[in-house]
TrEMBL record:
<dbReference type="Pfam" id="PF01136">
    <property type="entry name" value="Peptidase_U32"/>
</dbReference>
<dbReference type="InterPro" id="IPR001539">
    <property type="entry name" value="Peptidase_U32"/>
</dbReference>
<feature type="domain" description="Peptidase U32 collagenase">
    <location>
        <begin position="406"/>
        <end position="520"/>
    </location>
</feature>
<dbReference type="Pfam" id="PF12392">
    <property type="entry name" value="DUF3656"/>
</dbReference>
<protein>
    <submittedName>
        <fullName>U32 family peptidase</fullName>
    </submittedName>
</protein>
<dbReference type="InterPro" id="IPR020988">
    <property type="entry name" value="Pept_U32_collagenase"/>
</dbReference>
<dbReference type="InterPro" id="IPR051454">
    <property type="entry name" value="RNA/ubiquinone_mod_enzymes"/>
</dbReference>
Length: 664
C-alpha cells in the first residue's frame, strides 16, 4: 500500500479545490481534492460565498477523515473598526478545526491570532523572489503565486525560498482576473464596490470601443479586457519540476457540477504524474472512482489558455463574448415556423441550451423545450437529425439559418449525471484474521500505517465445507459498505478452517473499523504555525504607494516594523482623487490587436512607425485611458474615482488608515 504521509511535506502534491458551500466542499473531497478552500462568514474576497461556522466545521470533519485539509478565506483588506471582529472570527475558525487562514491584510499579523497556519492570498500579488522570501520570513507557510508568472519566474521564486518552510501554490484552472491580483480599483472607482473587499463589479467583462489618440475607433464594442479561462492541464509536470506543490482550482462561485468535474479531471492527471514519480506522494489519503468521464470542456468556460506560463501569447482574450458558447453539436438543416432541424453527432435532450453566433459575432441562444430524433440520413450514418421546438418559439431568432453552426452550453444529460452520486473515495486497508486463546482477533492497517485490533470471544466449530468456509469469511470481512475504507488485502491466519456465524464476523469487522477511525482521528495533527524570523525581515521596498492596500493602522504598523518609511493609504481610503492606475495588468490590448511596437521590430516598412501611444476605452459614459509601460511589458488602465463614490463615502464616515487628515 502507498503511504503518502511518510513522505516529507515538500514531496506531497496537493490538489486544492474551491467550495461555495460545505456540501460542494464535501463533494470536492469525495472527488479527489487534498484540500478545500471555503469562505468564512465574513471578510472573504467573494462576498456571496460566505458560510456559517457550523457548516465549515461539518466540512472539516469530513475532510479530516481522509487526511484532507480545509483552508478558510479571511482575505479582504480591513478597516480599523473591523479588526477586532476579524480577530474573533480567526479564533472561531480555529475552533472549527480549520487548518489554515488565507490572508491578504498584513494588519492581521499584528493581532492576537490563534496558532493556525497562515497562507498568503493571491491578493498579496506575489511576482518576485524578493516578495515571496519576505512573506515566508514574515510567517506565511503557503503562498499563492501570481497567475502571470512564467515557469522561469516560478523556478526563481522556489530558489529564493525554503521548500521545508513554505509551499508554493499556483492556479491551474478557472476564470482569470485580467489585473494583477490586488491591483484593480476600477470597480471601487466607478461604483464604490471594492475588489479588495470581495465586491468586484467586473468591469473587465464589459464591451468597449477602443479609440486612438485622434478619437478614431480602433475596435467597436469588443470585450478587450476579458480573458479566456486558465487551463494548465498540459503543464502540471512542468509546474511540479518548477517547485509548485499546491495546485489550485479557481471557483468559489461555481456550482456543484463544475467542482465535481474539474476536481476529478485534475485528480486523474496528478495521479498519473505520481504513478511515475515515487519520490512524490498525494497530500491526503484514499483513491477515487467515478461514474463519469471528467472533461473540463463540459463546464462553463470562455475558451482555454495557459496564459503566460510559456511567455506572452497573442490569443489569450475572450473578446467576442465573455460568455460560454458551449460544445459544437451540429448545424442547422431547416428553419421552421415553430422550430428547427439540426444535423450532428451529439445526442440532444429536452431542456438543452443551444447557442450560435449572429453575423455581428454576438452570442444568441434558445432553450429546447422538446427534441425529437428524426430518421438518420443513410448517406451519413455517423450523423443524426433532430427536430427542436424552442421553449419561447422562433420569433426574434437572429441569423439562425441553414448552415449555421450550433453549440450546446446546457447539456441536461450531463447535468443529471452529476446531480447524482458520481464518485466514491476509499482508503486502502489490509486485514489479518487470527486465532487467540479464547476466540478471534482482526488486525487492520490502512494505507497511512494506522492500526487497530478488534477481538471476539467465540467457540469454534469445524467447517463442513472448508473451501466454501474461507470464501464466505473473506466475503464477510470485505463488506465495508458505507465506510471510507476498501479492502486491498485479506490474510486468513487460522490453523484450520472454522465455521463462523456471519453475525459474529460482521460485529468483529465493525469493531475493528470503528477503532481504526478512532486511531486516525487520534493521530490527526494540526498544521504548524510558522514563526516569523527575528529580527523582522526588511520589506523589499522602503516606500509603499496605494498599491500596497494598507487600509488600517495595524497594517501600517506591520510595514513600519519591517522597515518601510513611507506608507501611503489604500485606494479605498480616497486619497487618490486624481487620475491613477485603476488596473495594472500583464495583458496588453495593443499586443492583442497586433499594434505593439515590439511586434513590428525588424519588419521592413513598418519598424519604428508604431508607437505605444495611449488608447481610450469607452463604455457608455465611462472612459478609461490605456497607457503602456513597455519596459516591464505592462498595461495600466487609468482613470479617476467618481465624485458620487466620494460623496457616498463621506456620508458614512468609517475608521481606516490615512497618513494625513481627509480634505474638507
Amino acid at each position: 500500500m502507498t503511504t503518502p504521509h511518510r513522505h516529507a511535506p515538500d514531496a506531497r502534491l496537493e490538489l486544492l479545490a474551491p467550495a461555495r458551500t460545505a456540501d460542494i466542499g464535501i463533494e470536492a473531497i469525495n472527488h479527489g481534492a487534498d484540500a478545500v478552500y471555503i469562505g468564512a462568514p465574513a471578510f472573504g474576497a467573494r462576498t456571496g460565498a460566505g458560510n456559517p461556522l457550523a457548516d465549515i466545521e461539518r466540512l472539516v470533519r469530513h475532510a479530516h477523515r481522509f487526511g484532507a485539509r480545509i483552508f478558510a478565506t479571511l482575505n479582504t483588506i480591513l478597516r480599523d473598526d473591523e479588526l477586532e471582529e476579524a480577530r474573533r472570527l480567526a479564533w472561531a475558525l480555529y475552533e472549527t478545526g480549520a487548518d489554515a487562514l488565507i490572508v491578504q491584510d498584513m494588519g492581521l499579523l499584528e493581532l492576537d491570532l490563534p496558532p493556525i497556519q497562515l497562507h498568503a492570498s493571491t491578493q498579496t500579488d506575489i511576482r518576485t523572489p524578493e516578495k515571496a522570501r519576505f512573506l515566508q520570513d514574515a510567517g506565511f507557510s503557503q503562498m499563492v503565486l501570481a497567475r502571470e508568472l512564467t515557469l522561469a519566474q516560478v523556478r526563481a521564486i522556489r530558489a529564493a525560498t525554503d521548500p521545508a518552510r513554505c509551499t508554493l501554490e499556483f492556479f491551474i484552472h478557472g476564470a482569470l482576473c485580467v489585473a494583477y491580483s490586488g491591483q484593480c480599483y476600477i470597480s471601487h472607482a466607478h461604483t464604490g464596490r471594492s475588489a479588495n473587499r470581495g465586491d468586484c463589479s467586473q468591469a473587465c467583462r464589459l464591451p468597449y470601443n477602443v479609440l486612438d489618440q485622434g478619437g478614431r475607433i480602433v475596435v467597436h464594442q469588443q470585450h478587450v479586457l476579458s480573458l479566456k479561462d486558465n487551463d494548465q492541464s498540459a503543464n502540471l509536470a512542468a509546474l511540479v519540476d518548477a517547485g509548485v506543490r499546491s495546485f489550485k482550482i479557481e471557483g468559489r462561485y461555481k456550482d456543484m457540477g463544475y467542482v465535481k468535474n474539474i476536481t476529478a479531471h485534475y485528480r486523474q492527471l496528478l495521479d498519473g504524474i505520481l504513478a511515475g514519480r515515487p519520490e512524490l506522494a498525494r497530500a491526503s489519503s484514499g483513491r477515487c472512482s467515478y461514474t463519469f468521464t471528467p472533461d473540463p470542456r463540459r463546464n462553463y468556460n470562455r475558451g482555454a489558455t495557459d496564459y503566460f506560463l510559456h511567455g506572452r501569447q497573442a490569443d489569450i482574450g475572450a473578446f467576442d463574448a465573455p460568455t460560454w458558447a458551449g460544445l459544437p453539436v451540429g448545424h442547422v438543416v431547416r428553419v421552421l415556423t415553430d422550430g428547427l432541424e439540426l444535423e450532428g453527432d451529439a445526442a440532444l435532450a429536452n431542456g438543452d441550451g443551444l447557442t450560435w453566433f449572429d453575423l455581428q459575432r454576438n452570442l444568441q441562444g434558445l432553450r429546447a423545450n422538446r427534441v425529437e430524433r428524426l430518421v438518420q440520413p443513410a448517406a451519413e450514418p455517423q450523423l443524426a437529425r433532430w427536430r427542436v421546438w424552442p421553449a419561447d418559439g422562433m420569433a426574434g431568432r437572429k441569423d439562425l439559418r441553414p448552415g449555421t453552426e450550433v453549440s450546446r452550453n446546457t447539456d441536461m444529460a450531463w447535468d443529471r449525471l452529476l446531480e447524482k452520486k458520481s464518485a466514491d473515495r476509499r482508503i486502502a486497508l489490509a486485514m489479518t484474521l487470527r486465532e487467540t486463546a479464547d476466540g478471534l482477533a482482526l488486525d487492520v492497517e490502512d494505507e497511512d500505517g494506522h492500526r487497530a485490533t478488534a477481538t471476539l470471544a467465540h467457540a469454534f466449530e469445524p467447517a463442513r465445507d472448508t473451501a466454501r468456509a474461507e470464501t464466505t469469511l473473506r466475503e464477510q470481512l470485505g463488506k465495508l459498505g458505507n465506510t471510507i475504507f476498501a479492502v486491498e488485502r485479506i490474510a486468513i491466519a487460522l490453523p484450520r478452517p472454522w465455521f463462523l456465524p456471519a453475525g459474529a464476523v460482521n460485529a468483529l469487522r465493525r469493531d475493528a473499523i470503528e477503532k481504526l477511525e478512532a486511531a486516525r482521528a487520534a493521530a490527526w495533527q494540526r498544521l504548524p504555525r510558522a514563526m516569523a524570523v527575528e529580527p523582522p525581515a526588511p520589506y523589499p521596498d522602503g516606500s509603499l504607494t496605494y498599491l500596497a492596500n494598507v487600509f488600517n493602522h495595524k497594517a501600517r504598523d506591520f510595514y513600519a516594523r519591517h522597515g518601510v518609511q513611507v506608507i501611503a493609504a489604500a485606494y479605498e481610503s480616497h486619497e487618490e482623487t486624481g487620475e491613477a492606475s485603476l488596473m495594472i495588468t500583464k495583458h496588453c490590448v495593443r499586443y492583442s490587436l497586433s499594434l505593439c511596437p515590439k511586434q513590428t521590430a525588424g519588419v521592413t516598412g513598418v519598424a519604428g512607425t508604431i508607437r505605444a501611444e495611449p488608447l481610450v476605452l469607452v463604455n457608455g459614459s465611462e472612459r478609461l485611458t490605456l497607457r503602456f509601460d513597455c519596459k516591464p511589458c505592462e498595461m495600466h488602465v487609468v482613470g479617476r474615482i467618481k465624485k458620487s463614490v466620494l460623496r457616498e463615502a463621506q456620508a458614512a464616515p468609517l475608521q481606516f488608515y490615512r497618513p494625513r487628515p481627509p480634505a474638507a
